[in-house]
Amino acid sequence: NAGVTQTPKFRVLKTGQSMTLLCAQDMNHEYMYWYRQDPGMGLRLIHYSVGEGTTAKGEVPDGYNVSRLKKQNFLLGLESAAPSQTSVYFCASSWDSLTGRTDTQYFGPGTRLTVL
Amino acid sequence: AQKITQTQPGMFVQEKEAVTLDCTYDTSDPSYGLFWYKQPSSGEMIFLIYQGSYDQQNATEGRYSLNFQKARKSANLVISASQLGDSAMYFCAMRYRGGTSYGKLTFGQGTILTVHP
Questions:
Q1: Interface contact flag, B95 A103, Cβ < 8 Å
Q2: Quick one: which of A13, A31, A112, B84 has the most CB atoms within 10 Å?
């Protein structure tokens, strides 16, 4: 049981390049999320998904796209990277029961992205 | 809109002493959950403790306890008997528990805790 995994762990891009970050979870969670973490700030939600085939915008969605073709995978894409997207990206998953303490989000290890 | 405020950018504590990390929140929703996460220098996010807005008792998990004062809208984390391994960034987070929240979290800016030997 690996929990939530992210690939790659590190990446350096040039401005204008594209890339895809992969998040995978083996906990059969319905909900998945992508956050970014910038220095001096907490995590901010980029996009999220409430199930296979669904996606929705979070707090800071501009410049990113996502896809959830399989329940266990959530992809984050940058079509044309900008220096402002230099950040640490976290994926998380959860199952919202609304009934107890089973709605904790479990986080992946993060991807450190630098855009030059 | 929900908002989480952590007013302590950095805190220092002596090993084996207790420390309180402050967190205040703002929401008009009656049903919500409050979380604390630890982020060590290695970068991963580690879940520590959870408190539901309707929970009658303050949450405890080992050396961690959450001092929940609903009227004051505060959810302070208390770490007892601090250890060197407790040195990390600590984040307070909140989620609305309504039907359309889908578990989304709102995070505070974090507090860096340094434990001195």
A1: yes
A2: A31
